[in-house]
Structure formats: structure tokens, C-alpha cells
Amino acid sequence: MGKWRYGVVLDAGSSGTRVHIYRWLNSDVARKGATDAQSHALPVLETDKKWTKKIHPGISTFADHPHDVGPDHLAKLLSHALKHMPPDEVSNTPLFLLATAGMRMLPAAQRKAVLQEVCDYAHKNTKFQLPDCDVHVQVIPGETEGLYGWIAANYLLGGFDKPQDHEHGKGHNTYGFLDMGGASAQIAFAPNATEAEKHANDLTLMRLRTVDGTPLEYRVFVTTWLGFGVNQARQRYVKALLDSTASNELPDPCLPAGLEVEVTKDGSLIESDEDDGDDDDDEDEKAAAAKLHGTGKFQECLHQTFPLLEKEKECLDEPCLLKGQHVPAIDFDVNHFVGVSEYWHTTHGIFKDKHEDKAYDFKTYQERVSEFCNQDWKHIKIGIDKGKWGKKVDEEKAREVCFKASWIINMLHDGIGVPRVGIEPLPDAKNTTKAALDNAKEKGFLDPFQAVNKINDVEVSWTLGKMVLYASSEVPPPDEKALAVGFGSNEPGIPKDFQYPGGSYLPWQHDPLDDDNWHRLFVEYPSRIPALLVFLVIVLVIFSIILGKEKRALVRQYAVSLLKKKPGKTHTPLKGKRRGFLPSKLFGLGGSAGQDYERVDAGEDGLSHNGFELEETYLDSSDDDRHFSDDSEGSRVGRTSGWATPQIKTSEPLTPGYFGTSGQADLVSAGQGLGLGPLNAIDRGGLLSRTDSRERIRSRASSPKRARSKMGSLDE
Asked: Where are the alpha helices (DSSP H) in 504-651?
């Protein structure tokens, strides 16, 4: 197992399934060399756009033929995951398929059959970790989906790791979370202190663990509204239209004027149905029950979608928001919400108008929606053909967007109670710190509501929250008394309904290519060899450039001496050898190709060939300033050798030091008498060139220049 941990989550929604891949450092590796800030933060998860893939329709459509869910649905998703993962990490990677609203609507027997097929197929066709199918393959409640989304949003915004930078006032530093899919909608937020104490029994206790093992605890309210997703709300709306009259020709203010669509008796559009075959019952079920004629009156659409909130239902546990479901009072002074999925797509899909990163403004948004939806369908089609609203907007999206926009507006403002920015006064933000304003104001995260899709280029998905919790559970606890990571009822200790993420501490095992395992490269990972060789060549080139010409010559001479030096054999001269272009450039192999080099035979000039063997220099690198100085008092003598530098022989061994003893003084004078000049010349380069030393010895007395100068003196 390498330093990276991987996790794969399949988000099985009502309209399709999307695979997500995440990775994070093993907890041992993450702690190694981490700064204080990194140690006190949650594990850092990474993902990539290429690591996700979505296919349609959802797995709930396999309810009547569950055996097909593997080959016809899962195969594509699992193949995508395997394509983007290291093969040797698959067996260490947990796989989760977590289904949401679409599967919640199926009868229990059909749900169980589909999930069992999913688990069996994954077991037989992959090596992913699936130790317990009841944990790894399941239909999760809407509350769990909302909690995972709340974790993801606050994780990406920094509310967990840097609470001091997200002080919203009243000691509050987390963000609320709103999600809406096709079938359900969720809300999750941490109430203010007063509401948290008043409604303690309604809260969920959640525990996380930072990289250094520090526990984090939060108490969050989460609820879900099944049937309040945009697709289910649309079906309820159409059904209400059908129930209101016996006519099969109905005006629809939520469709652009001039647009006609056929609908079934259960409220679904004919165009959006999948063809399930030739079954007669299916054909009867899909027979058109009515035809809707668009009138393009958006204000009337808002009015007719309002009853779908079911606010008239009795509230048994005050306060309530929708459908008679209890929700603690929301303090918009400190509860700032981010909305994902349909909240993003419907507010930014057509109506962003170059304001993609701006906060949600109700007044501006409603004006744009009204302008679009009050147009004639013919004009809208012309705008689609010209790409007026972007490449992603087609006729289907344009047909649906007016209803979706009216539903979003009603949910946000009449349902949840978000202030209408631009019309209603905002909550008093006087308690908000300046640091929080500076950090978040640009993105609008201090406004009551902001629709988001990505934060720091990472999609805000509940699947991320699931894997943050899982990665956190792999961090070892600081001591035996530490409580487990997970969530459950707001009770001390570990409540009976506590949900464990499924992870556990895994000690880091070194990567197969660590220092002590390099021999395995050629056996188990031959494909990595070319890249390794290229890397080594690049390092070698850079290193040779840094060395410089003289030091490259030293390295070359040392290497040659090692290769040629054999016990009991004499060295053979190198004559007429041509040096290749690259070696000569990198290691200074001679001035030009074809240059001859002649060995100095034993006894020549009184020098033994042993004096030319490359030996260790005694120059201390810490005294660079001295052995590059012209001051003889500051010079040092070094024992060097090589092809060009004679070794100075003395009756007693030389030791490094300043010239001050009588023996060393004799040595200095002897060296100068040979014409070697001050010994700092030897010291400066580490080696004295052969030509330099021999020419000085041989030619001083017979120099023509010197002879001419003497003759000139005689003439005078």
C-alpha cells in the first residue's frame, strides 16, 4: 500500500448515477513533516474532473429487471474508476454505492433486489473493498445525504479548519447547506446557541478527527422533504392541474406562450419518459391524459406553485417550515446558506448573465426570469439556435426552466424564509468580523443565500462529505479514551444509532520503489524504467552544468582512474582517442576531438607514475576564501593527483595546515626552486596542469624570450 489512499463513491440518484474518485494521504504520511496548521486540519482530499462520470437513467429503473443493473449500468462506471486508479491500489480502495430519493420510492423488496445485484456484481468483477454490503451498498436517508452535504460545504469553505476566519457573529462559524435534486430537497445547519439548547433533542451529533487526532464535534439540524425535488414538484403541479378540471386542454402559465406539451395522468411529461418496451400496460399508462398550452405568465406561475409547499399542514412540533415538518428557527444573522444542485443550475443555467460568482439577488433574478418566461416560444427557440444562453441550453431545458425557477423562488423565500435580497432588508451583520467580510464578501458567502457549484474548483457534492468523514476515521485516536468518528443522536458517548464511516487506522507501508525496494523495479514495475532513465539523464545534465568545466574534468579523471586501475598491471597510454560530443560537453573530455594524450613514463623528470594517481585532496571546503587567496599565509597544500599534477613527495607525511614549521618551509622553498611558483597556484585549482608544470620546469632557462633579453643587454 502506497502513501495515497483512494475512495470510490457511486451517487445513485433518481435520474442517473455518478462515480466520484477521491484520494488523500495516509494518516502517517500526512503527519510526517506537517506544519501546525496542517496537523490541526482535516485530511486533505483531492479529486479531478476526469475522475467523475455520470450515466442515465438511475438504478431505480432496474426495479423490474435487477439482473441487468450490473452489465447495463455499473460496468461503465466501474470501468471508468479502474481506468483512473493505480492497479495496485484497487484492493486497498473502499467502494460505496449510496442511493438517494429515486430508490427510496421503490417498495422494500425491489430495493433489496437491486442492491443485492449491485453488491454481487462488484464482488465478482472488481477487487474493490466491500467488506460489508449493508454499509457499502445502501439507500441512505435524506437526513444522511443532507449531513454529508453540510460536511462537504463547510470543508471546502474552511469552516472546520479555520473557524477564526469565518466568524459570522454570536460565536458561529459554520455555513448552512441546501440541496435539491429531482425527487427530494434537504436542509442542514447548526442553529444558534439559543435554538441549539432549546431543540437539543432534534440535533445530530457529528464527530470528525484532524490529522493530529484532535476531535471536532458539531451539532447539526438536518431534515429532508421527499417529493420536493424539481421533478417530483413538477409532477405534483401537473396532477393538481388535471384534478382541477375535467378538460384535457389546460392552460399552463409555467410554459412559454405558444408551447404545447402532452402529459400523462400521473403528471409526467410524455417527452421525458423512457421507452421501456412494448408492454401494453406501459403503453396505456403512458397514454396522454391532457395537453398543456403555455401562456407565459410567470407571476401567475409563482402563484400556482405556492400551494405545493404545503405550508397549511398542521405543525405538531413548532416551529415548522414545510409540510408540517419541524425545523428550529433559522437565525439569518449567522446562518448563511449555500445551495447546490438545482439551486445552482436553475439560478445560473440560463440567468447568470455574466454574474456567475455573484451572490444571489432575488430582485435581479426574478427580473431575468420574468423577461425570459414571458417571451413567445418561437423567440426562445431562435435564441437557443443562436446560443444566446450558452451551448448547454437546449429546448428541453428552456421548456422546464420557468417552472423550476418559480419553484426555487417559492422554496427559498416562502418556504425556508430566506430574505429577498434587493427587496427586503438584510439581517443585521454588525457582529461579523472584518476578516470574514474580506475573505468571503467577494463570493457572497456572508449573504443569506448563495448558489454554488464548485468551491476552489472542487464540486460541492455530498459524496465529498462522505469521504471526508471516512478519511477522518482513518486517523488514529490520540488515546484509548477518544470517541469514534461518525454521527448519531445528540447524546453523550456513543449512542445506539451511531453511524460509523467504515474506515480504520492503517499504518503506512512503504511504496514498492522506496530505497530498500529498488530491486523490485525491474521485476514488478518494468514500465517505470524508461521514465526513470529519462529522469536520471536530466539530473545528470543539470549536475554537470552546475559543476563547471574544471570540476567536470576532475570527475572524468577520477572515473577513468578507477576504470583503468587494476592490481598488478601498469597503465597503458591513451593515444588518439576521439571524445564523443555529449561526453566532451558534459565532462570536459578534452579540448577537441582527436587530441592525443601522452602518459608520463616512470622516471621522466624524476617523477614516478605513482605520482599521477588521483588521490584525496586535503583541502577543507570550509576554507574556500583562503585557498582561493593570493596570500601564501592563508594557503593550504592539498594532496592531489591525476594526469596533469605531479605528487609532491616528502620523507614525512603531509598534513593540512598553515606553513609555519621548518619542514614545511623547506618544502615551500623546494617547490619554488623547481619553478612551481607560490604553492597557492596549486591550491587554487586543486590540480596543476601537466603542461603548466612541465613547461615551467623545462623552459624557464631556455626561453627564447629570456635569451633575447640577455643578448640585448650584452649589445648595450
From this structure: 521-524, 529-547, 549-564, 581-587, 624-627
2 in the same domain as 114: yes
Element (H, E) at 345: helix 342-348
Rounded distance, CA 40 to CA 328, Å?
31
d(CA 43, CA 482): 18
Q: Which three cell numbers stand for residue 130?
A: 466491500
Residue type, position 415, single letter: G
Place of cell 444509532: 497
Radius of gyration of the chain (CA): 40
Query: Percentage of the chain with pLDDT > 70?
Result: 69
Q: In 3D, which of 234, 238, 198 has the Cα closest to residue 219?
A: 198
In a domain, residue 604? The reply is: no
Place of cell 421501456: 276
Q: Which grid cell is 706? A: 629570456
Active site residues: 145
Q: How does pLDDT run across 459-503, given as a tens digit for each residue?
A: 999 999 999 999 999 999 998 889 999 999 999 999 999 999 999
Per DSSP, 340 falls in state E
Is the confidence at residue 188, as pLDDT, over 50? yes
pLDDT above 50 (res 219): yes
pLDDT of 604 over the 50 cut: no
Tell me, yes or no, whether 593 and 708 share the same domain: no
pLDDT at 634 over 70: no
Same domain membership, residue 542 and residue 554: no
Q: Which of 492, 532, 499 is nearest to 513 (CA)?
A: 532
- Residue 20 host element (H or E): strand 17-25
- Hunting for cell 568545466 — which residue is that? 549
Phi, then psi, of 442 in degrees rounded to 5: -60, -40
Do both 134 and 2 map to the same domain?
yes
Query: Strand (E) positions, 423-500?
Result: 449-451, 454-455, 458-459, 486-489
| Cell numbers 439559543: residue | 194
Q: pLDDT tens digits for 257-293?
A: 999 999 988 777 776 444 444 444 444 445 778 899 9
Q: Tell me how far apart the alpha carbons of residues 100 and 90 are, in angstroms, rounded to a whole number.
A: 25
pLDDT of residue 505: 87
What stretches of 19-107 show up as alpha helix (H) in DSSP?
27-31, 36-39, 69, 75-83, 101-104
Please report which confidence band the pLDDT of residue 359 belongs to, taking 50, 70 and 90 as the band edges.
low
Same domain, 134 and 255: no
Please give the Cα distance from 217 to 493 (Å, whole number): 12
Give me 390's grid cell. Answer: 450558452
Between 158 and 568, the higher pLDDT residue: 158
Residue 160 lies in a domain: no
Q: Say whether both 249 and 118 belong to one domain.
A: no
Residue 147 and residue 188 in contact, taking contact as beta carbons nearer than 8 Å: yes
pLDDT value at 597 more than 50: no
- Dihedral angle, C-alpha 188, 193, 196, 198, nearest 10 °: -140
> Structurally, how many domains does the chain consist of?
5
The three-state (H, E, C) secondary structure of 375-437, written as one string: CEHHHHHHHHHCCCCCCCCCHHHHHHHHHHHHHHHHHHHHHHCCCCECCECCCCCCCCCHHHH
Alpha carbon distance 382, 372 (integer Å): 13
Predicted confidence at residue 528, as pLDDT, reads: 55
Do 567 and 687 have their domain in common? no
178 has a pLDDT exceeding 50? yes
Dmax (CA) of the chain: 140
Range of the domain at 531: 510-547
Q: CA-based angle 24:25:28, to the nearest 5?
A: 145
517 grid coordinates: 525496494
- Percent of the chain at pLDDT above 90? 52
Query: How many C-alpha atoms does 713 have within 13 Å on its Cβ side?
Result: 6
- C-alpha–C-alpha distance, residues 258 and 34, integer Å: 63
HEC-encoded secondary structure of 233-271:
HHHHHHHHHHHCCCCCEEEECCCCECCEEEECCCCCEHH
pLDDT in tens, 420-461: 876 666 554 444 444 443 454 444 577 889 999 999 889 999
